[in-house]
# Entry
Amino acid sequence: MDGNDIKRLSRLTAILTMLQTTKIVTSLTLAKRFDVSVRTIYRDIKALEQAGVPIIAEERKGYRLMEGYRIPPVMFTESEANALITIEQLVRKNSDSSLIKEYAEAVNKVKAVLSYSTKSKAELLSERIAVSPVIRVKNITNSLTTIQSALTDFKVLRITYQSAQNNDTTIRNIEPFAFYYNLQENWLIIAFCRLRNDYRMFRLDSILEMEPLEISFEPHKLTLKDFLEAKEKNFVIPDIPLS
# Structure
């Protein structure tokens, strides 16, 4: 096996990993990722198909693996996968680029062995976590996993919340939308508050009680990026909770 064969084998393995860590990927994305032509990607996909990998080509969308296909040796529960996805966002804020790279590769391997439904939830969660640029990591609460499940399952949470501004206590039904870690080293949950009929931010350490409800809500049309841009534009100090 010469150098070109080794290089191609490495690329085929990486393509398979990408197919297992994302719901769908285009030939152009793969070509840019591996710095090869789209025609080369076509040949690689054909080689994987000939090797028995069940790749489905969706017209004008890209490639995906047949539902249920995954590497079997290691399995992770949904909560374990959610914990790794959350930690990944914190690792990305450290100053050591090699750690960021290696941890990202490790998380990709974890995603590769998830079931189709859990993989979709992991992807959703990874898009709904933002970390303030200046942080010092410390543990705050133990309610993250409950909120994570409600966020990815689109379930309403009933919380008893104590305002940090005036200590007033209210009971809210909220639709979890995203997580945010602010300059005061607090985890916040961004959620649509049915009491205020608007999006609000709640400090996790100010949530006195939490009860998951069997009430579903429609996925939010708003993106996390749009929310954060509007928040920064409308408020002088963007890290004040708006509960």
User: Anything to note?
Assistant: DSSP finds eight helices and eight strands in the chain.
